[in-house]
Amino acid sequence: MIPASFDYLRAGSVAEAITMLSDHGEDAKLLAGGHSLLPLMKFRLATPAVLVDIGQLRELNYVRGEGGQIAIGALTRHHDIANSPEVRAGAPVLAHVAGQVGDPQVRHRGTIGGSIAHGDSASDLPAVVLALGGSLIAEGPSGRREIAAHDFHLSFFEVSLEPDEVLVEVRVPRAPGDRWGFEKLTKRAQDWAIVGAVAARTEEGVGVALINMGPVPLRATAVESAVASGAGAAEAAQLAAENTEPAADFNGSVEYRQHVARVLVRRALEQASV
Predict the structure, then answer these.
(1) Which end of the chain is more exposed for a tag (fewer CB within 10 A), N or C?
(2) Does the domain spanning 58-173 belong to CATH 3.30.465.10?
(3) Which pLDDT score, from 0 to 100, does residue 67 have?
(4) Contact (CB, 8 A) for 224 and 268
């Protein structure tokens, strides 16, 4: 398929990107690694009139510790996150999952900000940030604002960024040690998850998030409450399908996906030593 025609602009800074977005409004889309947006454009499921390329903005490519948090620039590649000593030590589940995204080509081009801002509930990294209780930093004409991960995704392919805002940073609290679990069901290793689950212990308890079990990444709050009350992994995992809205398609029925969610949550919790 060939995308619809569009104008191409390359931003030299975050400020310039914001100006370009302000000038063109909802007709413009940001282009980072391109692995999420370009396939949609080829199938004409997305038809932006203007592409604003921010892929070369080095100012958004970094990993650094900030007190009890790890700050990751939105244009940091999956490969760099997977191999970052800072992330491996402070948020090993994030490093592990970044190393499992797609294939080497995708990991060397795809960015964490692009994956999260794309708004696909089948993506792995948004669920990890959600389970860790992370937050997202957006910058627009009025300055920066911080958005909690659980408030960022609104619906399928819809996030809480304004048309003239750029996602500039991802923040996660430090959760060191082997106190996490990650499981997902795919047909092939590089495929999107049919269903996935993340469990991570933080200072606030155990965070559990589900992949592809609704229009947005979901916190399994019933599971978290059960764990906080002393339930074991098997018992708590029975609540994994509560308040989920998985789609039925050629990969499985709603009931099948909910069953798989319970199985994967149990495994993830067991890995996290619940």
Answers:
(1) N
(2) yes
(3) 86
(4) no
